[in-house]
Amino acid sequence: MKSTAWHAIAMALKAEGVEYVFGLPGNPQNLIEDLVAHTDIKFVLVRNEPWAVSCAYAYARMSGRPGIVLTNPGPGTTNIVTGLLEATSGCVPVIAIANGVVECHDGMGAFQELDTMTLMKPVTKWAVRVNDTRKTNWVMQRAFSLARNGRPGAVYIEIPSDLGSEAVEMERDYRPHPGRHRTRPEARAVEAAAEIIASARRPLLLCGSGAVSAGAADAVRTLAEDTGIPVYATPGGRGIMAEDNPLFFGLVGLYFTEAGKHYYDSADLVISVGSRLEAFSTLSWSAFPEGAKFIQIDIDADTIAMNWRPEVAVVGDAALALEDLAATLKPRIDRQSRAARLEEIAAVRTPFLAATEEEASRHEKPIRPPQVLAAINRVFGRDTILVKENGGADLWCYYWPYYKVLDVGDCVPMAEQTAMGFGVTGTIGAKLACPDKKVVCVTGDGALQMAMMELATAAEWRCGVTWVVFNNQAFGWPQYTQVLKQQEFVATGFDVATDLVAVARAQGCEAIRVDDPDKVEDALEEALEANGQGIPMLLDVTIARHDYPPHFQAVHKTRLHD
Fold it and tell me: Do 281 and 387 fall into the same domain?
């Protein structure tokens, strides 16, 4: 049977169970018409292409299925590069499909001509231009398999516009990809790791995004609770454990809080699960407990010993590796050692939690982020997805326990590229993936202004989400460097303050300006009520400039003098 490439792609997406495609079409003939005529897949029209990728990224992170993007030649393609880089860095499966330059004129100065393969190869797992449309079904199946398997990431597919509309005999019928391939680690590696763990006095688990994408939450909790080992997360690993669990100790590297760093520094064994251990999570690889041993668990053999060198490397699916490890350790668990660890952990955590709760209970003006974050936890409660942004003001939500992710999986972090605006727009994808959950994005005013045209997209799709904007009228992080160096504020502050409330209302959202600390909880209650009716809400919260978590300040002051 003959088919066009676009029809074949639409049928492939349908067979794979795709719910949404995010993007901005140049010509509805290219895929859109086939989606409408032959599938129930919904097309989410964004205002600008970069945010199609952030929506797909958040959708994929929350659903576990690849997020799908459609774009166009030239600037449409260059506009998605940053997002695909973020997805590949963050191990999030995203498949971008582009209407490419006509094949018959490629290389001749065609309209919007671009060497897209050279552009896309560094930011994706696979980039392919389909010059023979008979292979379309094979390409789509391969794309889904590559995006999800091994170390997940982004795939880019380009269909030349002249070939895409030609009906041809396809080489094969479409069959959905077989799903995730899970590999068990070598038994001898598991045995060697178990031997080191059993003899350790103060071990800890450090979980990255690979632990989340492997669905290893149950295995992490079981191993931690069986042995009394505390759990830490990188930003990408956040959501691996409910953060009110007495064994959770927060984030690492730049994002340490006092209690977490105190215990981490005295550890004698670090067990890394599904993390590349990038620079921010390790303070450029300087944050390793002195004299500690290291076990590295990862599905990607190329990641092993990329920076820190392990005594034992366990290569395999994170969930299966941890299950095997827990089973091997079970007969070796020393109950007295476990009980002593639990007491020691509680002795560090309990007073620190009490101190941060007391700090958050204080109503000060300008409003302080700890008060707002604690109020979000109280008002929104469980079943709330935290979508994190990038910047200075919003960093407070990275610092457990000022904000606690209360349920496993309920966090959409940005990857190490930290593309600003990604969280603001990612709320749409998160809500569409999990319509029964509440969604909150904590952002600064700088990041919001990079992406605020998509507030209208949230309103259009009745995404009941809340943006809490910590507004200090600046790009606060680079400005803080100027503070530390006692320099004039140049190119870091906004002399003209955008009326974010007016902008949000103009795009079909509700909005409240909050500058009275006694009104914070009321504003959040109003946001929650609006969200329940499918209305997005923006809270513009006035905060002081350069009010940052203590460890953030300490790291930057130390680096200033290095």
Answer: no
325 occurs within a structural domain: yes
pLDDT tens for each residue of 137-184: 999 999 999 999 999 999 999 999 888 888 898 877 899 988 899 999
Q: 554: which 2 tokens?
A: 């300490």
Quick one: pLDDT at residue 416? 84
Question: What is residue 475's predicted lDDT score, i.e. its pLDDT?
Answer: 85
pTM for the whole structure: 0.96
Decide if 181 is inside a domain.
no
In a domain, 100, yes or no: yes
Peptide bond into 310 cis (omega under 30): no
Domain termination site, one of 323, 350, 377: 350
- Hey, what are 47's tokens? 């205002």
Maximum alpha-carbon separation in the chain:
75
168: which 2 tokens?
Answer: 């041809």
Alpha-carbon distance of 44 to 222, in angstroms, equals 39
Q: Is residue 176 part of a domain?
A: no
- β-strand pairing of 168-169 with 2-3: antiparallel
User: For the chain, what is the radius of gyration of the CA atoms?
Assistant: 24
Q: Does residue 330 sit in the same domain as residue 392?
A: no
**How many folded domains does the chain comprise?**
3
Backbone angles phi, psi at 471, to 5 degrees: -100, 115
Question: In terms of domains, do 295 and 372 share one?
Answer: no
Tens-place pLDDT, residues 278-330: 998 999 999 999 999 999 999 999 999 999 999 999 999 999 999 999 999 99
**318-329 vs 187-199: helix crossing angle, rounded to 10:** 60
By the 8 A CB rule, do 331 and 306 touch? Answer: no
CB 158 within 8 A of CB 128: yes
Check which CATH number belongs to the domain holding 405 and give it: 3.40.50.970
Task: Say what the alpha-carbon torsion angle 544, 550, 555, 561 is, to the nearest 10 degrees.
Answer: 80
The mean pLDDT value of the chain amounts to 94
Same domain, 201 and 138: no
Q: What's the full length of the chain, in residues?
A: 562
The predicted pLDDT at position 562 comes to: 61
Q: Which residues pair with 329 in a beta bridge?
A: none
Same domain, 196 and 235: yes
DSSP symbol at 474: B
Residues 444-473: what's their mean pLDDT? 96
What domain range is 111 assigned to? 2-169
